[in-house]
Design a protein that fits this description.
Immunoglobulin-like, alpha+beta, binds (2R,3S,4R,5S)-2-(hydroxymethyl)piperidine-3,4,5-triol, globular, Beta-galactosidase, Chain A, domain 5, 10-stranded antiparallel sheet, 8-stranded parallel beta barrel
Length: 729
């Protein structure tokens, strides 16, 4: 059992890491350590001075060196003398805002805990263990259960908290974070992922200043602008060296990550639901469940950390028939036709696609209601047979006869004012009475907290899915949300609306993915505006960005790769000049970049020359030959495309006998040395061959010396290497 309790010290061990805490004499649950395995009680590292203006709990007696403002804790709370950022804040019936949590008992069991209504890492009983620690505020009887899930083989610990109101009055939760992590020693930096529509998850690494720094979303979705994930790393940490801790929140709504460096240079990290507009009423006997956070520690830099997250998300977060199966290569008509299509046009695209080896046609926005532009139709999920020139079943029959599967686009959470749904149910939108709503892309948001709205969506979506042979759904969401108000909630409970929206969304997704287990769901929010581990519980892949420019995508996919596995990254070859940037990149470069994901095309294949079509056919063959290695192999970043002159990445087979290296040299420089690329993850003493090269290299040579990248001519030249162990010895 990886969870041990000895002399009030609780140790959680995974394959390479140790997480440790201690119940101290006053019942406070102290955090001792998260790092490499040490086989030691790490409490010896904690020794605190008497710090002025850091008060002492009453039961510390005359011990002025004992302050909750300084000692590391597992779940800090507001109102008991901890003046730092805290994980929990509760408004009591008497108007006071204090909660003081002390240990009562704990439970350890095989298997992984579940969270009602929320996505969570799942595991077989023999691959996971759970620790539950019960804490109580003796004055109010508010209880907190801290849950720790341990997936030992992937070096993963999950955390979440349950707030239980055992008092006889109602309380209001002002903040309930998913976890608190205190790092008493060390000089830490942090990495977060910021951006905007068309440029998501750009890596930013900075030092941690004294005071509070934050990365968050208040947009109702996890957002393009910040991602609910962050890394704390040692100053010297790079891809292969140094200690780093990753945290990914399994939540798709407004979130907040805060990091504070305190007066003693200690670092505290807190992550969870954004508490800004949040207030949750908890009646006697009720419980509140926080979303789960996935944690991992690596003492060998970012590559290992990312691999841990890729493993857990691919194997223990993603679900469904396609989880580890080969994902279909798809052609999406959005950038080929936008709203201007009919069955004939789609069929012509599909016919060419099938000849080139593409597995699935995805019909994007515009097939339903009255929707020929983005000003109308959302909410009316009935097929526009005039536009399609026939029924959906007629179209899907034609497509499946080509030997292809068929996929379809929805944007369930949205409604256009110009729609039958809005005319019938104007009360179903999120809008504050007496105020005009804020429009975005001309659309309004449905109130997902309402059961009738969810029921309508379930029925209309399942009617479409039952009406034809549909293998894939793209679930889009194209605006941020404000005007938070629901007629279904009382004024006292309006602070619950954002979280209830996410719970409603998850309930609908759970129902649909359960009832249509063979349908592959792809998430989307104007590209990657809701790219998080919560959505990946329902959708196996997420459209990574609306920016399909191969050069820009190297940066976006680089940032995405820190937490999210390659199979989760929806990525397509599109036309040039690129529709977002106007940039022209070679077709093989566009394919090399798109292959680092769930691969597809998004252009009018019939506008390609015969030569280009032949090239596409070869690309598809190449991807299909390699897709197991690409999606299930070990992924390494070989460059930092934000700062380097090239982007490169590598997929390594489990037994390290085969590798694929892909990338892009951004610009050719005259009279310059060729770039050297150092490979990773090879067997040091094994001999390797590179396809098309007669030489033999040792793993050590390829990793220490590297290889010379091909001499380039022009811009955005592809890097492509297939390396295998030399079996001709
Ligand atoms: C935004 C998505 O990211 C695009 O791929 C496309 O589906 C459009 N929405 C359709 O409106």
């Amino acid at each position: 059992m990886p969870i041990r309790v000895e002399n009030k010290t609780i140790s959680i061990e995974t394959k390479n890491t140790l997480y440790q805490m201690k119940i101290d004499d006053t019942g406070i649950l102290r955090h001792l350590w998260y790092g490499q395995k040490t086989n030691t009680d790490m409490g010896y590292l904690l020794d605190y001075p008497d710090v002025g203006f850091s008060g002492n709990p009453y039961d510390a007696g005359e011990n002025r060196r004992y302050s909750l403002d300084t000692i590391p804790q597992e779940y800090s709370s507001y109102g008991n003398g901890d003046y730092r950022i805290t994980a929990l804040s509760v408004l009591n019936p008497d108007g006071s805002q204090a909660v003081d949590l002390r240990y009562i008992n704990h439970k350890i069991y095989k298997g992984k805990y579940k969270i009602p209504g929320l996505p969570a890492v799942y595991a077989d009983d023999d691959e996971a263990d759970t620790l539950e620690i019960y804490l109580i505020d003796k004055c109010t009887n508010v209880q907190v259960i801290l849950k720790y899930g341990v997936i030992d083989k992937w070096d993963i610990i999950t955390r979440s908290a349950v707030i239980c109101n055992h008092s006889y009055d109602l309380i209001k939760i002002k903040n309930a974070s998913s976890f608190c992590l205190d790092l008493p020693h060390g000089e830490w930096e942090w990495i977060h992922f910021h951006g905007r529509h068309n440029e998501e998850r750009i890596v930013e690494r900075t030092g941690i200043i004294h005071g509070i720094q934050e990365s968050s979303s208040i947009r109702g979705a996890s957002s393009h602008q910040q991602n609910p994930s962050a890394i704390l790393c040692e100053k010297n940490c790079d891809e292969d060296h140094g200690g780093c801790i990753g945290a990914a929140l399994m939540y798709s709504g407004s979130f907040k990550t805060r990091i504070e460096r305190d007066q003693l240079n200690q670092t505290r990290m807190i992550m969870g639901i954004n508490n800004e507009q949040f207030e949750w009423t908890l009646n006697h006997g009720e419980k509140f469940y926080t979303p789960e956070v996935i944690l991992s520690y690596s003492s060998n830099g970012f590559s290992k950390l990312s691999q841990n997250f890729h493993n857990i998300i691919r194997n223990n977060v993603c679900r469904g028939t396609y989880k580890l199966a080969e994902r279909p290569v798809l052609i999406n008509n959005w950038e080929a036709t936008y709203f201007d299509f009919n069955s004939d046009k789609l069929y012509e695209i599909a016919k060419t696609a099938s000849q080139l080896g593409i597995d699935m046609l995805v019909m994007d926005d515009g097939w339903f209601g009255n929707r020929d532009n983005d000003m109308s139709g959302l909410g009316d999920w009935t097929v526009n047979e005039n536009k399609l020139r026939g029924s959906l079943a007629e179209l899907t029959n034609k497509i499946t006869k080509l030997g292809m599967k068929f996929g379809i686009w929805f944007e369930p959470e949205m409604v256009s004012e110009d729609s039958a749904l809005y005319r019938t149910h104007p009360e179903w939108v999120i809008k504050i009475p007496g105020r005009n709503p804020v429009r975005s892309r001309y659309q309004l948001v449905l109130d997902m907290t309402r059961k009738d709205v969810r029921e309508y969506l379930y029925k209309s979506i399942s009617n479409v899915l039952n009406s034809a042979d549909i293998s894939y759904v793209k679930w889009d969401m194209n605006r941020s949300i404000c005007d938070w108000y629901s007629a279904g909630l009382t004024a006292e409970r309006m602070g619950e609306i954002q979280h209830r929206y996410v719970l409603g969304l998850y309930e609908l997704l759970e129902r649909l993915t359960t009832d249509f287990p063979d349908v592959l769901f792809e998430g989307c929010s104007g590209g990657g505006g809701r790219f998080d581990a919560g959505m990946l519980y329902y959708c196996l892949q997420i459209w990574c960005s609306d920016d399909t420019d191969a050069y820009e995508r190297t940066k976006i996919q680089y940032g995405t790769s820190f937490f999210y596995p390659i199979s989760a990254v929806g990525s397509h070859v599109s036309a040039v000049p690129n529709h977002q940037t106007g940039r022209i990149t070679p077709l093989d470069t566009r394919a090399a970049v798109a292959m680092a994901g769930s691969f597809g095309y998004e252009l009018d294949l019939n506008s390609l020359t015969e030569k280009e079509k032949a090239e596409v056919k070869e690309q598809i063959k190449e991807f299909k030959k390699n897709r197991k290695l690409i999606h299930n192999g070990t992924y390494y970043r070989l460059s930092d495309p934000i700062n380097d002159e090239y982007a490169a990445w590598e997929f390594v087979s489990d037994d390290k006998t085969e590798m694929l290296v892909y990338g892009v040299v951004f610009r050719t420089k005259p009279n310059s040395l060729r770039c050297v690329l150092k490979l990773r993850g090879l067997l040091q003493d094994a001999e390797y061959r590179i396809e098309g090269d007669d030489r033999i290299y040792t793993g050590r040579a390829l990793m220490e010396g590297g290889i010379l990248l091909p001499a380039t001519s022009g811009d955005y030249c592809t890097i492509k290497l297939h390396i295998t162990v030399n079996d001709k010895k």
